[in-house]
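Minimal example, chain plus nicotinamide-adenine-dinucleotide.
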Amino acid sequence: MESRIHLVDKAGSVGSFSTSNPASGEPLGEYPVFSARQVADAVALARQAQLWWSQTPLVRRGAVLRRLAQLLIAERDALARVINAESGKPLLEAVLTDVMIAADAARFCAENAAAVLSPQPIPHDNPAMRFKRGELTFAPLGVIGIISPWNYPLSLPACQAVAALATGNAVVIKPSELTPQTVFELERLIAAALDAEGLTAQPRPFQVVTGMGATGQALIASGIDKLIFTGSVHTGRRVALHAAERLVPVILELGGKDAMVVLDDADVDVASSAAVWGSMMNAGQTCLSVERCYVHRKLYSAFVSQCRDKISRLQVGNGADPGTDVGPLISTKQLQIVASQVEEARTQGANILIGGGPIPELGPNFYAPTLITDVQPTTRLMREETFGPVLPVQPFESDEEAVHLANSGDFGLGASVWGKTSHASAVARRVRAGSVLVNDLISGFAVSAAPHGGLKKSGIGRTHGVLGMRELVAPIYLDVDQMPRMKKLWWYPYAGNAEPMGAFTELVHAPGLGRRLSAALRSLGLLRTRRW
Ligand code: NAD
């Protein structure tokens, strides 16, 4: 499989857009901008497919997802080339953080769908309800809309899609306009997995619509049953408003400003390597990137000097070269955001120890890995998502101050704490973020069983793991009365029933056996009334 120019089907579309390689600017493909009508058609196809897909036995759905995992792994190198061409990330990262995570999620969802969908008994404590049996059943929601960003163009939509498919939903994905080909490869592999398991019915429960923001808006308005949106806070707010008007439930996976806290008993060599990888991986364009690093004063100068040394050894270049550690930023627009945040910090007294500017000789979107200290906490570099290869480091004096710094700001996606295990774990429990890692960072996203999501402005709801799958099913309470020929005690008429009904309400809650027995006797009057 090779990265190829996608042929634009202009019939019904409202234009087209093209993609390019962020390392070189080389054109890659041209894709249709779906009209609202085409988006509605894709959702209608998905709804039709959901009927047969949700009736397909769980084991066969699981077999499709396991097959998908195998196909992803078998084609990992070719997929990595497509991901690299569209997003610029190094090939090794494309395999580890996109392909492998997608394959793991497909297998996890195959293995856990039965547990998520199994009915749960609901006990009835109240004596009036004893003759009923209750259970909670879980039904697929229907059609799940997925709107994705470009930074993990395979793993993000794939993990969300497999959770939806495993639970019997159909999916309509709108990939980022910067990385659509990767999602077409996913569509191709899902189709191959369905075929391989003998499920050749059309239409397929996985549809792709391409375009920009307007196509995303059309998807929200198309009658989908739930939306999973991953992207910036700015767009997330617009998406939430649009969805609210239509009462479409949403999961929002938004931006982050993750703190890394290095305590006084941390291993400086390990923590500095982690800080460099955690801030530079994918050129810093990871929602869980280290964007603020707080280091105990005792270790500060050794830590900063080791970070500087390690950053100076990074190979910056085209991610298609196997020796590259850090690739380009996704776009010139992103480069300008990073450059302007660093410039603002510099003019307000920050010290740039290495990097600090674009590298135009490598290509249009390269920014030098940057280590920066003495940054004012009020600058955008410390408050807004940077999404670039920039590591700001700041010292602290006490655990109390470290917790306060980590919890400051509008975001709460991820965080990490470094130090002796018990000490770091105790501090980690005080940090408010969707995931807090002790002596590691980012890798929680690769644990298929672990839920992913944020607090504060980093989002609403969870994806991944069993919690993520539960977000995609409707809990339906089923109640079966075992005495179908008996009229209920609380039905009409009310006349004469106030006193015994009052006694009945005391029955469960009265303190002491004597009071309860008395209440039971007084409530017997309820049995004497002839119900209409
Ligand atoms: P973005 O918000 O610009 O775009 C995300 C998607 O939304 C794209 O597909 C885009 O076409 C679509 N879109 C744009 N306007 C829309 C509208 N009005 N209605 C509906 N859809 C619309 O984000 P991006 O630049 O592609 O991605 C980077 C952002 O994503 C960063 O902020 C990053 O932190 C965040 N992110 C979050 C997570 C997470 O799990 N929390 C993961 C990855 C990325």
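The chain has a mean pLDDT of 96. The CA atoms of residues 69 and 103 lie 4 Å apart.
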